[in-house]
Amino acid sequence: MIQIDLSSKRALIMGVTNRRSLGWSIAAKLQEAGCQLAFSYQGERLRGELEKLTDGMEGARLYQVDVTNPDELAAMVSDLEGAWGSLDHVVHSIAFAPREAMDGRYIDTTRDDWVTALEVSAYSLVASAQALEGLLTDDASMVTLSYYAAEKVVPKYNVMGVAKSALEASVRYLAYDLGKKGVRINAVSAGPVKTVAARSIPGFMKMYKRVAGMAPLGRGVDQQDVGRLGLFLLSDLASGITGETVYVDAGYHVMGMDLDDV
Ligand code: NAP
User: Where in the sequence is the domain holding 183, given as residue range(s)?
Assistant: First the structure.
């Protein structure tokens, strides 16, 4: 049996709100593999929850970083450099779009909402890679979280779908830049999973049930499915994979039509 051993490795997880967060699901798998972990969270109100989650996790480091604030990003990098000197893995699990932008028609998206969604959900990956590049080891790896709406129209997803398209394109360009050093970066495209961010998407539960009913595996996916794929892509088992968007959606995206009676 192949064991993933990350006991000499160090990872930064960006974007954990609670134990349902997809960032946490990958973090938990990294921890099981022996990896040492650091976390960043958006605002101080989340610190208590993260302290509870990481209680007993030896050497865990916590940083308050709003990804739209370059100073907070720089302060984290500087502290990590002093404490660890280098970084083997990065998980970027961050997205935001104003609710109004996901409630109506895409054509009505305001400039401000468009810029906010793209900045937080896509540019933040570039900003993070840029800030962390100097810390990454020669065989380091990164993953980010995407969704099917990057490729196809998912009603209500609107500007977030456009942000995910930019995110996936950024993964390809970052793979090219970072690949020169040997660093890999991939996107995990997860089917709907019940998290705080997901529940803020209008009609999420309807979407969740529809996907489970139509997917080849006849079910949806959960945090365990996402965590396993994240661990795989970050580990040496995926040593030849970079710039890729890999689906973990019980096969939903391969379906072209939903005909109950076929
Ligand atoms: P989540 O637990 O709410 O995680 C999203 C995280 O992004 C939260 O910790 C949030 O912090 C953080 N964030 C938002 N704006 C930020 C900012 N300016 N600076 C720093 N952090 C910020 O929800 P999730 O579902 O696990 O989402 C994680 C990733 O998975 C997202 O990219 C999402 O699009 C993606 N994804 C989710 C699903 C799904 O069905 N759940 C499917 C496919 C892809 P706050 O809590 O403070 O807002």
Answer: 10-250
Q: Where are the beta strands (DSSP E) in 126-211?
A: 136-146, 184-190
Ranges of beta strands (E only) in the chain are 10-14, 36-41, 61-64, 87-92, 136-146, 184-190, 245-248
pTM of the model: 0.97
Distance CA 45, CA 4 (A): 34
CA distance 120 to 113: 11
Residue in 72, 96, 193 to alter for ligand 1 test, most ligand atoms within 8 A of Cβ: 96
CA of 17 to the centre of ligand 1 (A): 8
**Assigned domain for 2 exists:** no
Closest alpha carbon to 17 in 247, 197, 219 = 197
Q: Are 113 and 107 in contact (CB under 8 A)?
A: no
CA dist., res. 105 & res. 89, Å (int): 38
Q: What is the mean pLDDT of residues 35-53?
A: 94
Q: pLDDT by residue (tens digit) across 197-245?
A: 888 787 888 888 889 999 999 999 999 999 999 999 999 999 999 999 9
Structural domain includes residue 42:
yes
User: What CATH number does the domain containing 91 carry?
Assistant: 3.40.50.720
- Domain count along the chain: 1
Q: How far is the CA of 197 from the centre of ligand 1 (A)?
A: 5
Inside any domain, residue 258 = no
The rounded distance, in Å, linking the Cα atoms of 203 and 130 is 35
Domain presence at residue 221 = yes
pLDDT in tens, 48-96: 999 999 999 999 999 999 999 999 999 999 999 999 999 999 999 999 9
Exposed (0-12), middle (13-18) or buried (19+): which is 56, by Cβ within 10 Å? Answer: exposed
